[in-house]
Amino acid sequence: MVEKLVIIGSGPAAYTAAIYAGRALLEPLLIAGSLLGGQPSLTAEIENYPGFPRGISGPELMQAMLEQAERFGARVQLDEATGVDFSRHPFSVITSSGPIEALAVIIATGTTPRRLGVPGESEFVGRGVSFCATCDGFFYRGKEVVVVGGGNAAVVEAEFLTRFASRVHLIHRRDQLRAEKVLQERVLRNPKVVPIWNTVVTAIVGQDNVTAVRLRNVQTGEESEVPAAGIFVYIGTEPNTAFLGGQVPLDAQGYIQADQQGQTAIPGVFAAGDVQNPLLHQIATAVGSGAAAGMTAERFLAELASVGYAELRLRVRGPSVVEPGTPA
Ligand SMILES: Cc1cc2nc3c(=O)[nH]c(=O)nc-3n(C[C@H](O)[C@H](O)[C@H](O)COP(=O)(O)OP(=O)(O)OC[C@H]3O[C@@H](n4cnc5c(N)ncnc54)[C@H](O)[C@@H]3O)c2cc1C
């Protein structure tokens, strides 16, 4: 059986693409990946997604998007895409439970949190090192924790952790935060938050669990240690594109190169959300590009039915033209 449209991912971009494709009667099949609902399902409070003046929890928002997609015929397979074959049409998406043939594919695999790469980080994952305050914050009631980073995610999660922790050390390598001003002001006003500027983490130490975090001031070189039962890392993200095996052109940072409609250099292969946007990582931007990719995929499939794949491949012009299967 050949699927009309396979969408890889189950975050805001994937669900939105599925809503549009579903309403075009394409019965899209989503390969959900290990994080059903995508990154919003890891956060307790979303305040900047339009339509929810009092905010909404991430899991609630994603459940609503899923229901909306399913209402229009989307199907979700709890599976991981481990590879693709875009060198022939229909395409093949390799999953843990076997290959799936598809006439069109939308890649919406988002990003994964970047790691610090310091001693102790890998050893203590799940025993004090976390990338998700919403998931793990509860375990740190009355304890001191460290949050690393200066962007929106770092400050929002630092603020969230003050509900549980006795103190939140906010470690940032610069002398000011990168987060939106409104978020900065709120977190810096919180008496439980202790900012530590111009500082990087050099090691995470402990016995069975984390007990402290070693620091170095990047200006003075001074070394120090803060006691902490947990460390939450929010220092950016990396695109989930390794499974594509170089079959779709990527930029230098590994993000998929796609145009504003989500079209990659391979006709019939589209990208949406954070995985194709190195600069803007928001639910609203992911949703916008998911809608674009869903609509463009629908147009592609309509044209495919009338002229065939060979003709459509010829129509993609300009410097981004590559033969399917050409490594980036
Ligand atoms: C803690 C936190 C708080 C945030 N708070 C906000 C906020 O308040 N407001 C806001 O606008 N944004 C927020 N963001 C950012 C926002 O969540 C992302 O920008 C958005 O989710 C991107 O959507 P996406 O669909 O592109 O990717 P993601 O949400 O990252 O979803 C990617 C999907 O791809 C799947 N996947 C990955 N690899 C594979 C594979 N090989 N096979 C199959 N599936 C795969 C995953 O399982 C996941 O379902 C926050 C992010 C974090 C981490």
The kinds of small molecule bound in this structure are:
flavin-adenine dinucleotide
CATH superfamily name of the largest domain?
FAD/NAD(P)-binding domain
Classify the secondary structure makeup into a structural class.
alpha/beta
Q: Please bin the fraction of helical residues.
A: 10-25%
Distance between the termini: 30 Å
- Major β-sheet profile: 7 strands, mixed
At the fold tier of CATH, the topology name of the largest domain is FAD/NAD(P)-binding domain
The CATH architecture of the largest domain: 3-Layer(bba) Sandwich
Radius of gyration: 22 Å
> What is the string of SSEs from the N terminus onward?
EHEHEEEEEEHEHEHEEEEEEEHH
* Fraction in beta strands: 25-35%
Question: TL;DR of this structure?
Answer:
Helices cover 25% and strands 25% of the residues. With 328 residues, it is of the alpha/beta class. The chain folds into 2 domains: 2-113 and 237-315, FAD/NAD(P)-binding domain (3-Layer(bba) Sandwich); 129-233, 3-Layer(bba) Sandwich (FAD/NAD(P)-binding domain), CATH 3.50.50.
Describe the protein.
The chain is α/β, with parallel strands linked by helices. The chain has two domains: 2-113 and 237-315, 3-Layer(bba) Sandwich (FAD/NAD(P)-binding domain); 129-233, FAD/NAD(P)-binding domain (3-Layer(bba) Sandwich), CATH 3.50.50. 25% of the residues lie in helices and 25% in strands. It is built from seven helices and 17 strands. The chain has helices at residues 12-23, 58-71, 133-136, 152-161, 181-189, 283-307, 309-315, and strands at 2-8, 29-31, 75-77, 81-85, 91-95, 98-107, 111-113, 129-130, 144-148, 167-171, 193-196, 199-206, 210-217, 223-227, 230-233, 237-239, 269-271. Strands 1, 2, 3, 4, 5, 6 and 17 form a seven-stranded mixed sheet that branches. α1 packs parallel to α2, α4 (152-161) runs parallel beside α5 (181-189) and α6 crosses α7 (309-315). The protein starts with a strand and ends in a 13-residue tail after the last helix. Residues 317-322 have low confidence and may be disordered.
